[in-house]
Amino acid sequence: MLALTLRSHLLRRATHLLLVMTLLATTVVSSIGIASPVAYAADWEQPTYVRSIGGTGAAGVYAWGIEYNPVTDQILVGDYWNYLIRQYDLDGNDVGSFFRLPSERVGQPYTVSVDPRNGDVWTPEISDGSSPRMTRYDKDGNFIADYGLSVGYMAWTNIRDGYLYVADSHYWNNSGNPPEIIKYDIDAGVTEVSRFGEYGTGGGEFGIIHGMDFDASGNIYLADAGNLNVHVYSPTGTWLYDFGGQGNAVGQFKGDLRGLVVDEVNGWVYVVDAQASQIEKFDIDGTPLLHWGSEGAGDGQFADGGREITLDADGNVWVADFGNFRVQQFDSDGNLMAIHPNPPQPPAEGMLNHPRDVAVDPVTGSIWTAEPWNQRFQEFASDGSFLEAWGTRNSLPPYGMNYPRGIGIDPVTREVWVANTRDHLIRVYDNDGNYLRQVGDGIDSSAFGSLRWPMDIEFFGDRVYVSDYVSDLVKWFDPATGAELGAISRDNNGISVDPNTGNVYVVSWNYDRVYVYAPSGSYLFWFGGRGSDDGEFENPWDIDIINGYVYVTDSALDRVQVFNLDGDFVGKWGTRGSGAYELKDPSGLTHDAAGNIYVTDAGNDRIQVYSSTTPVPGTETNAPVAAFTSPMQSDVMPAGTVAITGTATDESGVVTVEVAIKDRDSNLWWDGQRAEWQTGKAWSIASWTGSANTAVDWNLGFIAAIPAGRYYTQVRATDVHGNTPAEFPWVNWSVEYPPTNTVLPAISGTAEVGEVLSTSDGSWTGTAPITFTYQWQRCDGGCSDIAAATSSTYTVGAQEVGSSLT
Description:
Helix content is 3%, strand content 44%.
């Protein structure tokens, strides 16, 4: 067997060399700009750690599912990317959270359903590549069980009279595999009772079901995102009627319905029209009543529309505003009542949350990264300092993003190509972030000119290669025109091109291999295979060719492996952790002209940079020294995101700076990776900058500071040898409390010409000192400022006769 294996490998290698020799003589190779040969290094050496870019940057909430729990009188929010079910009281205060541990869960929480008999909470867990599970918790968030139901997809669920209803519906449904509503008996072990549904566009027929609820009679209301209407069925599954339809008028839908809730008391139906960023309100028979909302980040607006929707006991409407990292609360007429959390907790700029790809500007050396969970891409200077961020969750140019998972820079024009993965297109920007154009028609298709989940982007000569994940194609385009030129049929994650031969190396996520193709697209050979031994993969993500060696990240094994161009294993680095040569879920990979290697360390929310030319520092045991610059002891900070900053030094080089934050009133610690307060101490990774890693400035954006909050903060640093101090510097600080009026100001004096009027300041509570400014106004049908009348007193003039003063 050994002899046969060796012979097979040698044959693949010989075939590879023969094809390369043949192709070098063809016009195909010369037309794509083969670089001059690079001498292979005699012995590969592990690169030296240089710096980290970014740090922990989750938003306070990624609101997707939402449901009122009548037993606890709480609003429950499915926090999609923080992997939590959050509990809010009716004033919008976060009073707790729960979810399964990372080692137990299989995906993110989607819809949240509540059994009104006992307050049990049900939520489906779904992720790419895993079978969905239905999970169940008691009213206090204690895990009860999970269930593997016989469904293909179950993002939308609800509970009525002891029965769990699941919409088995997704974009892959058709007449042969129709979407269905499946009913399960909870008290009989969650066993199936019945199902109904037919695929089509006729009355009562299903397209894609995205939301369900029940009226007081038990009739079932279904939001159909495919047919842009609402179906109404009897409790036994008999179709009754439809309402809605496509359009922009009140009672019509633009597209992408995302949630539905019924007010059983008043007989109203609310439907989320995400494409229009509106809420449509109907009576129980489907008569349109009103709509509200628009696209944007302002009060009452939605980013890419709302997601799920629910009603509290008073009939107020709560909508999960996923793209704006918040929940909005309205009255039944659509008037905004509140936004939660308050102050807002968007992800801090310059911080990262699970970045997936990285690219380097060939001129400035600035680092660009694609950050799908925060729906944006960011630019950092070569010293790691933050420059700018772009992106918001929607499908509109110039900066609409839908999970951007890839990024590349044209070495000739320096244009930045961002793979807007779930919008099935690529957005192209200049190197200042100005939008230029799109590549791909935006249609979810594997057809010529279309894309299906584009990810990695690789420039070479007069081609730009794109790994198109769902279509199992590696496509190449003209970088100037965006026209598709050809494709290789292969399941894929990452791609790279050998600069000497033009051969294309493709990471296969399905077979855990690297496949190699000639520039013409013809197959040459493969290497790798499934396993954890040297040269094997469990989830290879990206690939890059640097100085004659092939580097491959493995997100499951938390390592980077190195091969020669023939696929022979050469070396590796990486174990799970946050040290210099430790990684968590490494994904995107690139290099610069100096041979520096950039690894997207997704699970640590950072980019790790390594050098093949920097000398390895000598061994030493001195711990790095870290200190605070802001807040300092007893400082009072403004509410909102607080920049916690400081310095760190080490003779061998700083790797990780971490900050621990405790709420001094609750004694809970802040877990920045999940945006959650918890009982155990948690450390968040800060970003740091500096021309060298021996003396750095660090920063952490703390998003959860609230008015009158009191916090205790520690910092620790770790160097390249793993040294960290035994004791950590700490500071106590607080957040200002905005002034609140307890006694209104009052005007005193005689309202006659020549008399002096005075105003009192009233009484206020809040963080001292409280200062006051004054502005007198003259009112006559409307009020206007009186010029220069800015003191606490004012002398009445003849011009005030017949007017009032305030």
